[in-house]
Automatic annotation (TrEMBL):
Name of a matching Pfam family: DLH
KW Transferase (keyword) present: no
Provenance organism: Inquilinus ginsengisoli
Keyword terms: Hydrolase
Highest taxon of the lineage: Bacteria
Protein's name in the database: Carboxymethylenebutenolidase
Single GO molecular function: carboxymethylenebutenolidase activity
EC nos: 3.1.1.45
Dienelactone hydrolase domain residues: 14-229
Transmembrane portions of the chain: none
InterPro entries on file: AB_hydrolase_fold, Dienelactn_hydro, Dienelactone_hydrolase-like
Amino acid sequence: MATVTITAADGGRFNAYLARPASGSGPGVLVIQEIFGVNAVMRQICDDLAAQGYVALCPDLFWRQEPGIDITDKSKAEMDKAFALFGSFNETAGVEDLIASLAALRDLPECSGRAGAMGYCLGGRLAFLMATRSDADCAVSYYGVGIDKLLGEASAITRPLMLHIAEQDQFVPPEAQAQIRARMASLPTVTVHAYPGLDHAFARVGGDHYDAAGATLANGRTAAFLKTHLG
């Protein structure tokens, strides 16, 4: 696998992890990081997507604060650092960086042209914003945080979007989940899957709330969704 450099809209440059399929080419998937940076979990997701035939790109979204963040959820110090980065993250600039990354992904010779976005936690929130603000061919959000505060943008969703919601998500209370599901129900291109009894980050391999059955179910739904909408 490789590291590529992307030029932001404002001229800055940042790195992204690139995983290519064995076939040499395929549709693109923009993988959007959690609050732990482009770490082993994100790189493995890219590698798994490459094994399914996709060109997977995961950009460093914290490059404006501290380039090269690669931490875990295994210590208090790392968790404190992750939440501090999340707290100071410029979301508007981050979405612009993702839009630049999506364009760079499509421009890669390995990419067949169609490309979607898929994110987790912070990345799940940003995947929702990619569905409202970008021309991504489809988007997948895993337990996105704060989407209930973004529902004013929902009318801009015209392409397929899949949301995975953990019903016991400690960061997304039941009332917020109800608001999201009610608004999404009116949008024909949106599919919402809820996972009873599961907490935030249930699909993060090795995480405290990892649930193998839930992760397998969600990932299977995602695989079918991507195949349908990206080819």
